[in-house]
Design a protein that fits this description.
alpha/beta, Aspartate Aminotransferase, domain 2, pyridoxal phosphate, Aspartate Aminotransferase, domain 1
């Protein structure tokens, strides 16, 4: 290792998802069910608002906390859902930026942070960067949020519980009762509760629920990246107790500075865009893929996001993905998201034609080794 490289960079590896993307570049006409972003484009009204901002000279730094009209619109929306006495909001550089600032603000070296396994790939990496200790709680085989498992993982060093519902990579959504139980446990134990809700609008069965409804100290991370296909625009937001938010802003001043100003004006317009058609379309895609695969794969039916996490028909999910790639199908091995190597992730954020081709390949592989 180069002598100038910091020790903290050795505690985690590059994202395995990027390695699959590198493989994709080498294939001709692959069936790509690996990408974690919508397959529709940014709504034209949002594009127009950003262009107007650029042409109107709104290209400088914004205030660190974000442009006032966007913050005010979010504050009103949040206050309607969570009428807490002490809740503020700021604009982060994507939800990834919000995650980083949240962990930097609340996690000291040696503090333990509990989250479910499978998990979003960034969670353990960000924690290790900040000196935190990841505590992954096994949620196999159904990937439910089990308050008893969470409670059993708590130690005197537990600082935070990190939730993600709807979840990446499983698509599983926690029930209102499950979220309430964990929210009350965190309050009882005086443990920080961080809720990653970036897929909150991709919710197909019933109504979306947040632990913030049951614990007024919950810190919530959300954004526009997935809902409005604005993944490259880097506009997220974080809301929670005002002192926590002020501290995050102090760190943002010296790191990200602010989210891109023209993109924030686009996000303001995005709040007026009706996403109902896209959500219904993704629910249809979810049903189409699940119905086509559930008779030959073990799958927990996703209630949100745009992922499924089937169990591979052979002993190694990673080996199964290699076999799928040999057939021109790009999916993600489950061991990128988990301590187990038994599953793989499908993204159904793809065209119907791609999904049908992918389903055909997976059905042909369902018997095991090929």
């Amino acid at each position: 290792m180069h002598p100038w490289i910091a020790d903290r960079t050795t505690t985690f590896d590059s994202s395995g998802i990027r390695k699959v993307f590198d493989l994709a570049a080498k294939l001709k006409d692959p069936v790509n069910l690996s990408i974690g972003q919508p397959d529709f484009d940014v709504p034209e009204a949002v594009q127009d608002a950003a262009i107007e901002a650029i042409r109107g000279g709104k290209n400088a730094y914004s205030p660190t906390q974000g442009i006032a009209p966007l913050r005010e619109a979010l504050r009103q929306e949040i206050a309607e859902k969570y009428p807490h006495e002490d809740r503020d909001v700021f604009i982060s550089s994507g939800t990834s930026g919000g995650l980083m600032l949240s962990i930097l603000t609340m996690v000291n070296p040696g503090d333990e942070v509990i989250f479910l396994d499978p998990f979003f790939v960034m969670y353990p990496a960000l924690l290790k960067m900040c000196g935190g200790v990841p505590v992954a709680v096994d949620s196999y085989p159904d990937f439910r949020l089990d308050v008893n498992k969470i409670a059993a993982a708590i130690t005197p060093r537990t600082k935070m519980i990190l939730l993600n519902s709807p979840a990446n990579p499983t698509g599983v959504t926690a029930s209102e009762a499950e979220l309430k139980a964990v929210a009350e446990l965190a309050a009882e134990k005086n443990i920080a509760l961080l809720s990653d809700e970036i897929y909150s609008r991709f919710f197909y069965d019933g109504e979306f629920a947040s632990p913030a409804s049951y614990n007024d100290q919950t810190i919530v991370i959300d954004g526009f990246s997935k809902s409005h296909a604005m993944t490259g625009w880097r506009v997220g937001y974080v809301h929670g107790p005002s002192e926590i938010i002020r501290t995050m802003l102090k760190i943002q001043q010296y790191t990200f500075v602010c989210a891109p100003q023209p993109a924030q004006w686009g996000a303001l317009r995005a709040m007026e865009v009706n996403l109902g058609g896209h959500i219904e379309d993704y629910k249809r895609k979810r049903d189409m893929v699940f119905d086509a695969l559930s008779d030959c794969y073990e799958i927990a039916k996703p209630g949100g996001a745009f992922y499924m996490f089937p169990k591979a028909p052979i002993d190694s999910g990673a080996k199964f993905v290699e076999q799928a790639i040999e057939r021109g199908l790009l999916i993600i091995p489950g061991n990128i998201f988990s301590s187990r190597d038994s599953h793989f992730r499908i993204s159904f954020a793809a065209s119907d034609e791609q999904l049908k081709r992918g389903v055909d390949i997976l059905r042909s592989m369902a018997g095991g080794s090929v």
